[in-house]
Write a structure and sequence with these properties.
220 residues, mainly alpha, elongated
């Protein structure tokens, strides 16, 4: 179908067209949400909320235009932003509560299931230090593959704002990545040095140790 036809059918509440829209963009929306939240479970929630909001606001879709991907990603960006705010409020609330009793650690049992989570966390270790607007523009332009105009449309900001935010995001991301790589290199070197066996007091190494061994004649 042509983009305008898809828009017309979505605006009219065509469930079959909306199902096709879901099939086409669900994975893209989920990946975008995961990059912004760093949590697969939260990404699932954001994706569901995105398509629910899209269905409820379908009449607001313009009659003419390109693919509806930028529209969906714009909704997902807002939902992810709300999620992060909610998490911040919950963390602030928990910080004021008494410390709970310690429970058993089941991390090892679920290690394999968390592999993907760790990958996301590693990315967010740097991305979280970007400002929210910069992180959103980076996710839309670089990972989602939207052009400046589509990103501006998704976020409701001018194209010039997208360009300036993306430029700042790239510079800061390069700087932060360099710092993190340097830190990991230092920690790796320290770990290797810690694993190297040291000599005990009075221990003699190398050729001197061989010379010091008693000869067969002397040991009889």
């Amino acid at each position: 179908m042509e983009d305008n036809e898809v828009r017309e059918r979505i605006r009219a509440g065509d469930r079959e067209a909306f199902a096709a829209l879901y099939d086409r963009y669900a994975r893209t929306v989920h990946q975008h949400a995961a990059r912004l939240t760093g949590d697969l479970s939260a990404a699932e929630d954001v994706m569901s909320e995105t398509f629910l909001a899209a269905w409820r606001t379908r009449e607001q879709v313009r009659a003419e235009g390109g693919p509806l991907g930028p529209w969906l990603l714009g909704i997902a960006t807002n939902k992810a932003r709300n999620h992060r705010r909610g998490v911040g409020r919950r963390l602030a609330f928990l910080a004021r509560q008494p410390k709970p009793e310690e429970t058993a650690d089941f991390a090892e049992a679920s290690a394999e299931r968390l592999d993907h989570q760790r990958e996301l966390a590693a990315v967010r270790a740097v991305l979280d230090r970007l400002r929210g607007p910069e992180r959103e523009v980076l996710a839309l332009c670089v990972w989602a593959g939207l052009d400046y105009a589509q990103t501006a449309d998704a976020l409701g900001v001018p194209v010039g704002t997208v360009r300036s935010r993306l430029s700042r995001a790239r510079k800061r991301l390069r700087a932060l990545t360099g710092e993190r790589l340097a830190q990991e290199a230092r920690e790796g070197q320290e770990a290797r040095e810690a694993r190297e066996p040291g000599r005990g007091r009075g221990e003699v190494g190398g050729r001197a140790a061989i010379v010091a061994l008693p000869s067969e004649r002397g040991s009889r």
